[in-house]
Amino acid sequence: MKSKRFRRFYAAALLSSSSVFAGLLAGADALDERLKSHRTGDALSCSSCHAETRVVTGGTAGLGDRRADPFFVSAVIDQVSEASILALADPADADANGISGRAAWVWSLRDRRPAVGRFGWKATVGTLEDQIANALATDMGLANALLDYADATCFPDEPGCLIARRSAGSSNLLPRLSHAVRMSKPSDSPPNGSIYRAGLALLAQVGCNACHQPVLADPVGQPLVLFSDLLLHDLGPDLSEAQRVGSAGLSEWRTAPLLGLSQRSAFLHDGRAETITDAVTAHGGEATESKNLFLALSDADSLELIEFLLSL
Q1: Poorest-pLDDT segment among 158-172, 258-272, 297-311
Q2: What is the 3-state secondary structure (H, E, C) of the chain?
Q3: What is the pTM of this model?
Q4: What is the pLDDT of residues 284-298, one digit of tens each?
């Protein structure tokens, strides 16, 4: 059973997560700027983790190792409409295809309303600003316009509890960072033509596109290439963690966007997989059938699909 202290800290961390991430990414210079934490003594930049897609040991609020996503992936996630995500949800598996993705509802500090979780490996954050705010406070030790610390409310052995600010405050850090993330673009465009079509066909052949949806939509219906449905799915015991994060079950994970795989040197949420095949092999639960189809591909088809994925 979680301690009272852990529950309090983690609840506050969930509330803070989306706005920190948006604040950290406001412009190219802002993303590289080293920000000194008066709480920890560290001087870190957003690019310290995200530009190199590093694994953050301990992750947000010390809840396990987490690999950071490239900035441009977060920029795309930010544009996806809630309707586009909810349209794919099928929590009771009404179509009996073995896939029962569900939306995670969270509280947005930025919007002060319930929002569909889209950021974070457990879909615990609904907006870019909330995500940045969480990263600033919990990973970098920086209070910000959405999250602050209140030592008076903490247990004696705690360095300070996270609390949500009642007002947005005057700091321009979050707006600068969020603007920077939204302006970020991939270094190379995804492949097109016959190579792209062949890769999409193989992805569909093994059924991975049931969760890794190639395209979602923005609020006006424009297509967004992401290769995710941003829903929670049960991926089986090999990908189960010891403690719950947000509303997700121990083995439930938000579908990881395949966009940006070309920028990563390790795979899965904690970087444990050195290859695409290792990552697929770890999948179970709702992904079991697709995993088996992937592993049954001919050597030529397997190589073609992996090359396609590593080009995204």
Answers
A1: 158-172
A2: CCCHHHHHHHHHHHHHCHHHHHHHCCCHHHHHCCEECCCCCCEECHHHCCCCCCEECCCHHHCCCEECCCHHHHHHHHHCCHHHHHCCCCCCCCCCCCCCCECCEEEECCCCEEEECCECCCCCECCHHHHHHHHHHHHCCCCCCCEEEEHHHCCCCCCCEEEECCCCCCCCHHHHHHHHHHHCCCCCCCCCHHHHHHHHHHHHHCCHHHCCCCEEECCCCCEEECCCCCCEEECCHHHCCCCCECCECCCEEECCCCCCHHHCCCECCCCCECCHHHHHHCCCHHHHHHHHHHHCCCHHHHHHHHHHHCCC
A3: 0.85
A4: 999 999 999 999 999
